[in-house]
Structure formats: structure tokens, C-alpha cells
Amino acid sequence: MRRAAGPLGAALLLAGCQREFSSVHPVGPQAARISDLTWFLTVVGSVVFVVVMGVLAYALWRGRRRAESASGPEADRRLTRWVAGAVAATAVIMGVELVYNFYTGRELAAFADSSALTVRVTGHQWWWEVEYEDPNVSRRVTTANEIHVPVGRKVRLEVQSADVIHSFWAPNLHGKIDLIPGYGGTTYFRADEAGVFYGRCAEFCGMQHAHMDFRVFADPPERFAAWYEAQLRSSTPPSDSVRQKGQQVFLSRQCSMCHTIRGTAAGSRVGPDLTHLASRTTLAAGTLPNTRGHLGGWVLDPQGIKPGSRMPPNQLTADELQALLSYLQSLK
Ligand code: CUA
Question: Which of 1, 82, 107, 167 is 20 to 30 Å from 290 at the Cα level?
């Protein structure tokens, strides 16, 4: 996976050059409609700007030459005609934009489909809880921060918030949808290309708003099915004494007060479900790559990495930490 970093990365991001986080590189029908509208508004706005600047330059040039003669009833009438013409042109242009905007909104609303895959996303300060709905309760999947979807199938996205207002935005797939406490929101999207598409929270939601990223993995249907089956399974039991010790550390320390690992006694839902932590590519809502070193740093000193986050620091001996890491890394 590519991730632009540093000032150059930020500049590329702003320029829309990072294809995996770009509203002008749509990979689904909803994003394509929004992209068309964006280009239309950009082109119309640019033309209007050029025309207005041209008229202004002409008026300044002419005004200097004829400062004296430009008065009297004839000049007043001419001025009135210009202003009336400009107001009419503005009204027509804005009317066309309004109609196109409305038409795009209607097109987006027409994607509703009862056979879509339902994914419920809950915004938390500062991570994303992801649940896959299924009429059969034993086939529901819970994960965090990484959303897998099958290419070519519509996804019904249901959003809600556990605390403050967040906004779910994966620009290659769709526009923003707000997560408002106490209100559910629903929208649809479809990925027509396989790939990893970045998303982030697009509504300021507190100290770590900038570290509230997610990823959408658009997988070919077979790969998605395999991923789903793997996520349905309970956690891998510890296979050796080090991992057994690691599990003991997890269950006896404060970890289990916030996290779930299915197949163990840990069942709290304050923080992300860790049953298949090792199958994810990042930690702390896209803040860190999911490697042993970063995981260790995160467990010991989350406040140093993501100040204000809800994860408390953990005091562990070197042996306990290594055992815990071995256990967590076995949760594929
Ligand atoms: Cu959540 Cu910004």
C-alpha cells in the first residue's frame, strides 16, 4: 500500500494526485456522479471567474480614458442594462447548477437496494467500529477501521455515532455522510474496481480527529468470501507457552476491560474488537502500520502516539510485553 507522507505527500493529497484518496478518481457509480458534478461546477465557476475578471479589466481600462464623459442619462441607462444583464446571467447559471445538483441528489438516492450487503459503521473518538449485518446472528462479523467489501456488489452503509458528530468519507466511493449522535444515517455505495481506498473522518470531532482514518478494501468476491469466513471464526487459541502467557496478561490486565477477543473471557466493547487483530494492516485507526514494534509502542504508550486517545498506558515487564505481543500477533 502506498501512503503519501510528509509535506510532499500532503501537497499531493491536496492536488488529488493520490489516487486512493481522491474524489476525481471515482471507482463506483455514486462517486462518479459526484465527480461529474464537481467538474461541472469547477468549469462553470472558472469560466465565470475569467469573464468577470475580463470585464473588470476592460472597465478599468475604459474608465481611465473616459472618466469625464461617462455621465449623464445615456451612461446611466447603459449601466442599468449591464447590471440587469449580469444579474440575469447569474440567476440562469445558478439555476442550471441547482437543477444539476438536485438531479445528482436524486440519482444518488435511487441506488437503494434491499439485497445489498449491510455494513454498520459506528464512529467513536477516534476509531471506527464496523459490523456486518446478517439475519443469522452467528454470521455477523465485527471488526474495526478496515472495511472489506466485494467488488461489484452494492453496500448498504448504516452509520451512527457513539459520542460526537463524525463524518465518514471515502471519496473514491461516495461523498461524505455525517454520523450524528442519536440519529442513524443510511447510504449506498459500490466499488467497481478492486483496490484499497482510504477514508477519513471529515468532521472535527476532538483532539485526535486527524488520526481517525479507515480503509476500504474492495476485494474480488471470492477473496471477500474467504475473508468473511475467517472473520466469523473465534480467536486462535494460544498454541505455545509464550502465547498462553500472553493471553493471561491480556485477560488479567486492563486490556480485557475494553476489548473483545471472541473465544476468551474478554468481551468488552469500549475499544475495537481484537479477535482478528493480526488480519488488519494498521493500528489505532490508520495511525500506525500493524507491526510488532508499533504494536508494542501502542500498548505501552498510546498517549505518546495519539495524545488524548481513550487507550490508557500499560505497565508491563519486558517478558509480559513480548508474550502479549506474540499472542496478539497470532490473532489472524
Ligand atoms: Cu471523527 Cu473527526
Answer: 167
DSSP collapsed to 3 states, the chain = CCCCCHHHHHHHHHCCCCCCCCCCCCCCHHHHHHHHHHHHHHHHHHHHHHHHHHHHHHHHHHHHHCCCCCCCHHHHHHHHHHHHHHHHHHHHHHHHHHHHHHHHHHHHHCCCCCCCEEEEEEEECCEEEEEECCCCHHHCEEEECEEEEECCCCEEEEEEECCCCEEEECCCCCCCEEECCCCCEEEEECCCCCEEEEEEECCCCCCCHHHCEEEEEEECHHHHHHHHHHHHCCCCCCCCHHHHHHHHHHHHCHHHHCCECCCCCCECCCCCCCCCHHHCCEECCCCEECCHHHHHHHHHCHHHHCCCCCCCCCCCCHHHHHHHHHHHHCCC
Ligand 1 center to 271 CA (angstroms)? 16
Q: pTM (2 decimals)?
A: 0.86
- C-alpha 147 – ligand 1 centre gap (Å): 17
Any ligand 1 atom below 6 A from CB of 123: yes
**Ligand 1 neighbour 286 (Cβ under 6 A):** no
Show the domain range for 137: 117-228
**Has residue 67 got a pLDDT over 80?**
no
Together in a domain, 121 and 201: yes
Distance 168 CA to ligand 1 centre (A): 8
Percentage of residues in the chain having pLDDT higher than 90: 81
Is the CB of 199 inside a 6 Å radius of any atom of ligand 1? no
pLDDT (tens digit, 9 = 90+) per residue, 242-257? 999 999 999 999 999 9
CATH number at residue 191: 2.60.40.420
Ligand 1 pocket check for 171: Cβ under 6 Å: no
